[in-house]
């Protein structure tokens, strides 16, 4: 796909596009999942050192940070972040750079995210005409395992103090050459739950001799859907999805236990509080109604990804210089998908943007076995990072 004519690329990023494409295809062909990104991290570290950066490795197990100082004096520091991990998915693509690691695939574009930040870093390292310090964060384990949380807990921002932190994600369905961002919630929180209903097993032909956890679990499955509609203010958003249910192993035995698992998504901590409390109460009382008991495990994995207002306004201004004001969506509908960049935004102000990845034809959807990052975006994303760094560390840094 060709780059739209509205996009004004940074000349050095545009010239680097063929090399970035090679990097991206290498990363796509060699995917590594959460906390296993050893080869990926080594690839990134080698590039950063070749660009002349100081590199710290082993943060959050397999994460790393590169540091680039501008040639002008200045005390301001910012961080740009990319995620590196792949997913446990069997790739169905048949192109030359398809995964060589069975059951692992870059189905979310983290290969592209890593490449765009590497490209921008090379452009800035070749001409460090800015004031202050740029830290580039290459984070492991964004998918499910909270690599950002681990990096923050290990002292990421104590070791690398910054005034702001910035992230980006490709967004299939948003046209190539467009960028979406908004102040406030951009992505939802990610909670998980597991409810085990404990009953008394019996012969399926003699249910009166037991306490049927299957029936209780069935009622609970539908009752959980009342939480968003009957326990929350109509203008508050939440999703409660039961995604896994198991119990029993044959036709003629009522089991002693049935387990349900699922996820909860929201944009506010107060909403999470209500949903968790109601889920626990419904599990307990629904089970009791059928002579059973229930045990609940509830974990808050990722908080909501919330952009700060001033940083979002600045990012919108920078994005407009790249793609034009008419191609900026200032108020996209937030997604209930989750992103562990949220942990970084809870520590420092910043902004997370969506970069249009083009149509979703041929299964080009996030977490789909037919997905592939749009290579036309490499120069666009790298140009955005360069423009943002130059703005923050030249214009903002010299105030």
From TrEMBL:
Mn(2+) binds at residues 108, 110, 143, 169, 367. It is an enzyme of class 3 (hydrolase). The Mn(2+) ion enhances activity. Its EC number is 3.5.1.32. CDD domains: M20_Acy1-like (cd05666). Pfam families: M20_dimer (PF07687), Peptidase_M20 (PF01546). Residues 193-287 form the Peptidase M20 dimerisation domain. The keyword Nucleotidyltransferase does not apply. GO terms for biological process: diaminopimelate biosynthetic process. GO terms for molecular function: hippurate hydrolase activity; metal ion binding; N-acetyldiaminopimelate deacetylase activity. Keywords: Hydrolase, Manganese, Metal-binding, Plasmid. It comes from the Bacteria. Its cofactor is Mn(2+). PANTHER family: METALLOPEPTIDASE, PUTATIVE (AFU_ORTHOLOGUE AFUA_6G09600)-RELATED, PEPTIDASE M20 FAMILY MEMBER. This is Hippurate hydrolase. It comes from Azospirillum baldaniorum.
């Amino acid at each position: 796909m060709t780059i739209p004519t509205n996009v004004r690329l940074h000349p050095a990023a545009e010239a680097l596009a063929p090399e970035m494409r090679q990097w991206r295809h290498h990363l796509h062909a060699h995917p590594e999942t959460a906390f296993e990104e050893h080869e990926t991290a080594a690839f990134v570290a080698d590039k950063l050192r070749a660009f002349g950066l100081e590199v710290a490795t082993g943060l959050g197990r397999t994460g790393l940070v590169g540091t680039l100082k501008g040639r002008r004096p200045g005390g301001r520091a910012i961080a740009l972040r990319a995620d590196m991990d792949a997913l446990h998915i069997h790739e169905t693509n048949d192109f030359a750079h398809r995964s060589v690691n069975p059951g692992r695939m870059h189905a979310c574009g983290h290969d592209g995210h890593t490449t765009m930040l590497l490209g921008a870093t090379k452009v800035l390292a070749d001409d460090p005409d800015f004031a202050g310090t740029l830290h580039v964060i290459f984070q492991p384990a964004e998918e499910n395992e909270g690599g950002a949380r681990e990096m923050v807990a290990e002292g990421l921002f104590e070791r690398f103090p910054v005034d702001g932190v910035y992230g980006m994600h490709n967004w299939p369905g948003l046209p190539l050459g467009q960028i979406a961002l908004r102040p406030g919630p951009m992505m939802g929180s990610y909670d998980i739950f597991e409810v085990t209903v404990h009953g008394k097993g019996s012969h399926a032909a003699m249910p009166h001799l037991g306490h049927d956890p299957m029936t209780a679990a069935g009622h609970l499955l539908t009752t959980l859907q009342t939480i968003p509609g009957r326990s929350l203010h109509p203008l508050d958003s939440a999703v409660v999805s039961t995604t896994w249910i198991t119990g029993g192993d044959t036709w003629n035995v009522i089991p002693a236990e049935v387990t349900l698992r699922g996820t909860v998504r929201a944009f506010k901590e107060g909403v999470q509080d209500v949903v968790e409390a109601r889920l626990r109460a419904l599990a307990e009382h629904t089970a009791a109604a059928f002579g059973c008991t229930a045990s609940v495990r509830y974990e808050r994995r990722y908080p909501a990804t919330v952009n700060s207002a001033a940083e979002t306004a600045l990012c919108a201004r920078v994005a407009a210089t790249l793609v034009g004001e008419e191609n900026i969506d200032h108020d996209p509908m937030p997604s209930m998908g989750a992103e562990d960049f949220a942990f970084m935004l809870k520590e420092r102000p910043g902004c997370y943007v969506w970069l249009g990845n083009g149509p979703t034809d041929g299964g080009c959807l996030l977490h789909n076995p037919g997905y592939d990052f749009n290579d036309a975006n490499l120069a666009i994303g790298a140009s955005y990072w360069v423009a943002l760094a130059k703005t923050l560390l030249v214009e903002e840094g010299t105030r």
